Amino acid sequence: GTYGNTMPDKSSPSTYLTFLTEVLQVTEDSNGDRNLIYALLRDNINLVNDNFAVVLRNWARETLPNLDSQERRIYIIESICAFSNAIQEFPLDSKSKASNLEIAIAGYEVALTVFTRQKYAEGWAKIKNNLGFAYRNRIRGEKADNLEIAISAYQASLEVYNCEAFRFE
């Protein structure tokens, strides 16, 4: 990967990749148990930052297309989504909260490269809804721009999650 000077801390890209692998493994093995995910995050708090979001995006771009099975790809995306849900709510100060939201946004955007509306409409809609939530709460960027992105994501989700599709008798 090409990470250039985006790593102001002393951790190498390989340290982040190892941590990413561990995060996804713990998330997968624990079925998204937040206590276990949060313990891992606390133990590696120096790696829970904007660089992790960059590494997640780069890793996904390089790894997901090369997996031999769509089933494995979906399994990984489900773990990324469960982790993104957890990190959005990882309780820390506002500076850390900003990075946590950036990591969650990266995870959801990665997930949308696999979960398309055409192939996985319900999963796509759920991810769009979660992405809307993350942008609604986003600390970085212009508030108005973030709200526009959130509204767009919510509206996309509602194209699938609507009264017609989920009619109760």
Short structural summary:
The protein is mainly alpha-helical and 169 residues long.
Structural class: mainly alpha
The main sheet comes to: none
- Gross morphology: globular
* DSSP summary, beta strand count: 0
What is the oligomeric state here? Answer: single chain
What is the C-alpha radius of gyration, as a whole number of Å? 16 Å
- State the order of secondary-structure elements, H for helix, E for strand: HHHHHHH
Helical fraction equals 55-70%
Strand content: under 5%
Q: Please, what is the average pLDDT?
A: 89
Helix count, DSSP H or I runs of 4 or more residues:
7
**Poorly predicted runs of 5 or more residues:** 1-7
The CA-CA distance between the termini, in Å, is 52 Å
What's the topology here?
Layout: H1 13-29, H2 34-43, H3 50-63, H4 70-88, H5 94-111, H6 121-137, H7 143-160
Helix pairs in contact: 1-3, 1-4, 3-5, 4-5, 5-6, 6-7
Q: What features would you describe in this structure?
A:
This protein is mainly alpha-helical and 169 residues long. The chain is built from seven helices and no strands. The protein has helices at residues 13-29, 34-43, 50-63, 70-88, 94-111, 121-137, 143-160. Helix 4 packs antiparallel against helix 5 (94-111) and helix 6 (121-137) packs antiparallel against helix 7. Mean pLDDT is 89; it is low at 1-7.
